[in-house]
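Task card 7
Instruction: Convert sequence to structure tokens.
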Amino acid sequence: MTNKPQPSNGGREVSQSNEPGADEGGPSRRTFLKGTAAAGAVALGVGAGAVGSASAGIPTPQLHRDGNLIKDPDGNVVTLRGVNIADPKRINVTSQARGKDAVQVIDMLTDASNGWYPRMIRVPVQPVDIGEYEPGSGPPVPAFDETQLESYLTNHLDEVVERCKERGVYCIIDYHRHRDVMWAEGQNGPLNTDLQDEVDMFWDVVAPRYAEDSHVLYEVYNEPTEPGMWEDPTTTQWVADIWDMWLDMAQPWVDTIRNHADNLILMGSPSWTQSPEGALLEEFDGEDIAYTYHIYPGHNSSRNQDWEDASRNGEGVAGVYEQAPLFVTEFGWEEGGGQYIGGTDEFGDAFHDFLEKSPAIHWTAWCADPVWRPVMFDRPFADNANDSVGDPYNGTVPEACSDLPCEWSLTTGSGGMGDDIKSWLEQYRNDGIPGEGTATPPTDTPTPTDEPNTPTDEPNTPTDEPNTPTDEPNTPTDEPETPTPTDEPDTPTDTPAADAMVVDDYDGDPGWASHRNDLGQWCGAGSFENGGGEETGGALVLEYDNGGWYQSQINQDVSDYSTLVFEVSGANGGEESEVLFDMGGVRTMLSNVTDDSIGTSMGEVRVDMEAAGIDRSSPSVRFNFWQGGSSTLELSEIRLE
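Output:
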């Protein structure tokens, strides 16, 4: 690839980096800026609208990449920070339940009189909403036609992009797909050419439309899912091969954008955009390309508070920001928020330190919305803030706010992220902005726009929405849909040892849909014929046809245990020769680490962990089903003896 060369006198040393680099913004950067924020307290109340509000906007000239940094046309280093909103069409068509339309959300988030200072807003554009499918679903490929896309842009996206420009904030247009679709059929391909065509059509229309808008960035594909990069590609060849295949998949999209526009391009990575370190091997071809990273409290790297080490399920960044700009376009936390569970003390503060260790790292928190989780806001006007905001395309939307806009309130405390994110944005409001020093804020005083039309021909975008009682969109995690019961498995007859450690017995407590096993650790599955697997009758049912992954984390030292035991049955028998086993650095076919065979009735399959060479210091159990087989497994227990 080619990039504008970086000056040899790059700048100050990087705080907390392993090596000095070209980053500018030395070790005292965060400490120094804290003093700025201390001068004024952040207002925690959130006004109902932006009538007559003043935006503390910044100049938004065209940005470019210079080495690992983003710079303005005058060569000033720019570091962008901000928030995500929900899909603008989804906001508009559920505004009577949400309390605001999309433009009113932008106005609120850029209201300096209320202490808001985002420099970048990420706008997810979902195929599920363009094509008007059921919220939370993964639509078919292709999800929409060009007429539907044009309607979506005209009625929903154009006004949001324009409002961001008026309010002096950069705008990321994010093609927000990931749910229920694989970008390739397996680890060796072939590529999903229908998906390739869908995304190419999207950017062939969108890229030229906003090519003259210097404040617009293009995030090409939100979260490519499977095949995933589940180890460090810089040390593991099969993962490096997947990155190579991803380059083949996504390079045509980059080329399409570059045929029309010079806007900054942001590129995700397989396994839910958790592996940007693939860029250390080979970057996409073209100028002004940066890479994205999504992470939440439930991931291995977060539990270890180490977002550098890519050997933990491929979730770290391996210092990629020392080579290329890194945009962390999704992160967040919410107490009781499923896979996003966590708090400021357990996740937020430490991740803040990571985000601010280099001016090459940019970020947008997920999500400045009261519905899409993890949320930054509540809806105090709603009788029950947890109520669904409805299905605008196939059902009805309840009316909770009859006179838009209605007030949202920030989430606060250790379990809420709203007040923290707002405080961070104020803290860094004068840091890394284009031009020299603080720009003169715009003096315009926008007034509310008319309520948007609710077009009926717009396609919807699959989202990474968590399993919640509402229609909340996606959050880039690798966790599956909520399973529904199917046939009950046979009851196991073996009795485990009294001192065994039960990892999971699939008895519904905690339920599989909670993504927590009996150790309280994360578990999940995906890409099966039955989605993320189904827990029923005391067993987890996994239906596979050359596809699927399963993982259950242990995350503690189990050196006192020597044997891993599965209580399992298979529809055909002999499935151990079709399942790739991955645990504690050992990755091989299950048949290579056990003398037992999976039968058609429930029985034990035992793995001698010591003999297999498994590192038992803090392992996870993972299965991969892309080995060409087709069957159904019923797993009633995993334990250690």
